[in-house]
Amino acid sequence: MKIILTHEVSGLGTAGDVVDVKDGYARNYLVPRGFAIRWTKGGEKDVAQIRRGRKLREIATIEQANEVKGQLEGVKVRLAVRAGEAGRLFGSVTQADVASAIKTSGGPEVDKRRVELGSPIKTLGAHEVSVRLHADVVAKLGVEVIAA
């Protein structure tokens, strides 16, 4: 099935790409979660619009990405969340939570879709998070989760 990606999907492509995937993957995962739309002849207009939006948000060069990486790695991110007695969180820390914590800690504004959590953060303490700034540049930063 041909689809148009509306978000970056690791291992598949970036927003605006037209890719061919198996029917079940598109129908059961990509389309319901909003990562893709079905390809149609009229959808070509959507591709141009998605690419324009991606170009505005995207970090254009590796030099810019390395500069932002230096800024990110210099920021100490602390995130206050509700937790139980044993240090387990009520829920988990999301990508959007990390992106907003970076901004409030004085770091650069980061798109939540660029934040990659290795596994769900469900406990208090120090955790490592990756931020994919460019295809070749990934910033690793420590996030300290504390009780609110």
UniProtKB/TrEMBL annotation:
Start and end residues of each Ribosomal protein L9 domain: 13-40
GO cellular component terms attached to this protein's record: ribosome
Keywords of the record: Ribonucleoprotein, Ribosomal protein, RNA-binding, rRNA-binding
InterPro entries: Ribosomal_bL9 (IPR000244), Ribosomal_bL9/RNase_H1_N (IPR009027), Ribosomal_bL9_bac/chp (IPR020594), Ribosomal_bL9_C (IPR020069), Ribosomal_bL9_C_sf (IPR036791), Ribosomal_bL9_N (IPR020070), Ribosomal_bL9_N_sf (IPR036935)
Family the UniProt entry places it in: Belongs to the bacterial ribosomal protein bL9 family.
Ranges that cross the membrane: none
PROSITE patterns reported in the protein's UniProt record: RIBOSOMAL_L9
Role this protein plays: Binds to the 23S rRNA.
Organism of derivation: Streptomyces thioluteus
UniProt entry tagged with the keyword rRNA-binding: yes
Keyword Zinc: no
Protein name: Large ribosomal subunit protein bL9
